[in-house]
Amino acid sequence: MEVLTADQARGQANEAAEESREEVAARKRDALLQQDREAILKALKDFPDGETHTEIRTAAGLSGVRFGPVWADMLIAGEVEKAGEIRKSNGRNYESFRATGQFHMSC
User: Fold this and answer.
1) Using only C-alpha atoms, what is the Rg of the chain?
2) pLDDT digits 0-9 by tens, 30-67
3) Is 85 in contact with 96 (CB distance < 8 Å)?
4) Is 36 exposed, middle or buried (CB count within 10 Å of its CB: 0-12, 13-18, 19+)?
5) Cα 79 to the chain's mean position, in Å?
6) How many CB atoms are located within 10 Å of the residue 59 CB?
7) Which of 11, 20, 70, 102 has the most CB atoms around its CB within 10 Å?
8) Element (H, E) at 65
9) Cα 80 to Cα 76: distance, rounded to the nearest angstrom
10) Of 26 and 7, more confident
11) Secondary structure letter of residue 91 according to DSSP
């Protein structure tokens, strides 16, 4: 058994506390990302034929900062796909997106 000096014991305790804080922060971050992903998936159900990512973000109730990383991960994972173009009321065409067929089958 190793005997630690008071400074060593305090140092180890501080390191353990810092690691614990980092783990808690990581769990909170992961939970928020999962919550945002679920909000996007729920919004996508409202647009089975596709919609712009801006409309999907608005329907999900997310800011651009929170939406962007989750959206990118979903595109990479194949949960979201391009659905072609959609003409909006301003007469312009925009790229539209929808949940993949794989997602629709699992809901």
Assistant:
1) 22
2) 999 999 999 999 999 999 999 999 999 999 999 999 99
3) yes
4) buried
5) 12
6) 17
7) 70
8) helix 64-77
9) 8
10) 26
11) S
- With a cut of 80, say whether residue 88 has pLDDT above it: yes
Structure tokens at 20: 């614990």
What does the block give as tokens for 90? 């301003």
Q: According to the model, what pLDDT value does residue 10 have?
A: 79
Judge whether 97 and 51 are in contact, CB under 8 Å: yes
| Chain centre to alpha carbon of residue 4 | 44
- Residue pointed to by tokens 């997310």: 62
User: What CATH architecture applies to the domain 6-106?
Assistant: Orthogonal Bundle (1.10)
For the chain, what is the mean pLDDT? Answer: 88
Structure tokens at 34: 């999962």
